[in-house]
Amino acid sequence: MSGRPGIEVAAxxxxxxxxxxRLFCHAARAAVTARGRFAVAISGGSTPRPVWARLAGPHHxxxxxxxxxxxxxxxxxxxxxxxxxxxxxxARQTLLDRVPVDPARIHxxxxxxxxxxAAEEYDGELRRTLATGAGEPPRLDLALLGLxxxxxxxxxxxxxxxxxxxxxxxxxPAAIVLPPVVDRVTLTPVALNAARQVAxxxxxxxxxxxxxxxxxxxxxxxxxxxxxxxxxxxxxLWLLDAAAAAGLEDRDRPAAAAP
Length: 259
What we know:
The protein has a single domain, classed as Rossmann fold (3-Layer(aba) Sandwich), CATH 3.40.50. The protein is 30% helix and 16% strand. The chain has 8 helices and 9 strands. The strands form 2 sheets. Strands 1-9-8-5-2-3 form a 6-stranded parallel β-sheet. Strands 4-7-6 form a 3-stranded antiparallel β-sheet.
């Protein structure tokens, strides 16, 4: 990774969710103050759900500039938006339906479309929404990512051609993904490394070997795709529970400051 990633080890699940929720809130307020909006890419899976529950609770629901938040997804399964495996559906049920977000600022991947078409559309959506007009690449303010036991993040799997793509979003064939085995659309390293901050949220002992490989292992993105996410200037933060951090040799490094 480029620069020295920050590591925070939480005392337990509640602490982990609380840290992630505070990060989200801090990044949202800072971005809205600086640029008038907050563009965030969120992930699916079970680990972020307590975070969404906290954000949708009374403390944060009434304290965040929801009307200024642009929601994107780090990846999506190529299923209809009401399908049980849809990352959009999970976020809608746990967060988006419970807060006053502007529907026009919810930028879902059209998982019901043919994967290559959905990826091309999403690439265009990112470029239109995040364009600065100042010659800078489209930039998310925050990308919240998970980590799989094989080292994948978003839907960047070992050996995926998307790791070398120059686009912001790519289709991923079902043949290389973990269950549920369906085609996917993912943000690429180009999109994720341009983000102002990237945060990995990881819990559980089954992830400990992948966490160690991603943070302390050799730079080999083809085998551990999380190694491809290397935003410059130390803008990567790892939020871990104790079980996920158990294999690290250097667990006590201070967390990187938010930009």
